[in-house]
Write a structure and sequence with these properties.
Elements: H1 3-25, H2 29-51, H3 59-82, H4 85-108, H5 114-138, H6 142-169, H7 172-194, H8 197-203, H9 205-226, H10 231-238, H11 241-252, H12 259-275
Helix pairs in contact: 1-9, 1-10, 1-11, 2-7, 2-8, 2-9, 3-6, 3-7, 4-5, 4-6, 4-10, 4-11, 5-10, 5-12, 6-7, 7-9, 11-12
C-alpha cells in the first residue's frame, strides 16, 4: 500500500472512532444515529447532483450494502444498549476483520502477503486485548454477545459489498454519496416504524451534523482506499479505530492508560508498516 493510502485509512479510523463514540455517549443513540444519517444524505445531495450517479454495475452492490447496513445499525445499537462501548466496539471490529480476510480473497480476488497477514493478525489481537480489558473493568453481559457478533459479521458483508461496489463505480465520491442517501432512506423507514424520524432529528441536530460530516468523510476515505488497495488490509487499518478511541479517551476524557491499552497501541503501531506490504 502506498503511504497516502495508509494515511487515508488511518484518518478514516480516527473519524469512525469519533462518531461511534459520540453516538454511544448520546442520551438517545438511536435518534443520534438516525439524525446523523439523514443529515449526511441532505449534505451530499448537491455533490451528487454535480458529479452524477454511479453506473448501473454499482447499483446491485449499493442495494446489498444498504440492506446489510440496517442489520449492522440495529445490532450495534442493541449491543450498545446492553454493553459498554469499550467492549462492544473492539469485539465487533475484530469479528469483522476476521471475516473479511478470507472472504476478500475468495470474493474479491485480493491476496495478502505473509507480512500483511501478520499485520492483520496483530490488529485483531490488539482489538481482543482492548475488549478483554474493558470486560474486566465493566463486564460483558451474555445478552450482548449475540448482537455484537451479528454486528461484526454483518459489517464484514457490508465491507465486501462496498468494496465491490466502489470498484464497479470507479468513483468513491459518487458511490459514497449514493449509498449514504440510500442508507438514510432505509433508516428513515426504520425510524418511522419505531417513532417519528424528523422529530428525532430535530432533537439531535447539534450532534447529527458534526457526526454526519465525520461519518461521510470516514466512509469516502475508506472507499477510495478500496479502489486502490486490498480490501482486507484497508479494512484492518480502518479498524484501528478502536485503538484511536482508547487514545482519545485517555487524552481528552482522562481515562486510565492501562498496560493492556498500552500493549494494544503498540501492536497496532507495529501492524501499520506491515500492512503497507499488502
Amino acid at each position: 500500500m502506498e503511504p497516502i493510502l495508509v494515511l487515508a485509512a488511518l484518518a478514516s479510523a480516527v473519524l469512525h472512532a469519533g462518531w461511534n463514540a459520540a453516538v454511544k455517549a448520546s442520551p438517545r443513540p438511536d435518534a443520534a444515529m438516525a439524525g446523523q444519517m439523514v443529515a449526511g444524505a441532505v449534505m451530499v445531495i448537491p455533490v451528487l447532483a454535480w458529479i452524477g450517479l454511479p453506473p448501473p454495475e454499482a447499483w446491485p452492490w449499493i442495494m446489498g450494502s444498504t440492506g446489510i447496513n440496517i442489520v449492522v445499525v440495529t445490532a450495534l445499537l442493541r449491543a450498545y444498549a446492553l454493553g459498554g462501548f469499550g467492549t462492544v466496539y473492539p469485539v465487533q471490529r475484530a469479528v469483522s476483520v476476521l471475516c473479511v480476510v478470507p472472504l476478500a480473497g475468495a470474493l474479491a480476488g485480493d491476496a495478502l502477503a505473509p507480512a500483511a497477514l501478520l499485520g492483520v493478525g496483530l490488529i485483531v489481537f490488539a482489538l481482543v486485548l482492548l475488549a478483554l480489558g474493558a470486560r474486566r473493568d465493566h463486564g460483558f453481559p451474555p445478552s450482548t454477545i449475540g448482537w455484537t457478533l451479528l454486528a461484526g459479521i454483518a459489517s464484514a458483508a457490508y465491507v465486501l459489498c462496498d468494496a465491490r461496489g466502489v470498484r464497479a463505480s470507479h468513483s468513491a465520491l459518487s458511490y459514497g454519496c449514493t449509498a449514504s442517501i440510500a442508507n438514510a432512506i432505509t433508516m428513515t423507514i426504520r425510524q418511522k416504524i419505531l417513532g417519528t424520524p424528523w422529530r428525532s432529528f430535530a432533537g439531535a441536530w447539534s450532534l447529527a451534523i458534526p457526526n454526519a460530516i465525520a461519518s461521510m468523510a470516514s466512509y469516502v476515505l475508506i472507499l477510495w482506499v478500496w479502489t486502490r488497495a486490498p480490501v482486507a488490509a484497508g479494512a484492518a487499518l480502518r479498524d484501528t479505530s478502536a485503538v484511536f478511541a482508547i487514545i482519545i479517551a485517555v487524552l481528552f476524557l482522562h481515562e486510565r492508560f492501562t498496560r493492556i491499552r498500552l500493549a494494544a497501541v503498540v501492536l497496532a503501531c507495529i501492524a501499520v508498516p506491515l500492512l503497507r506490504l499488502a
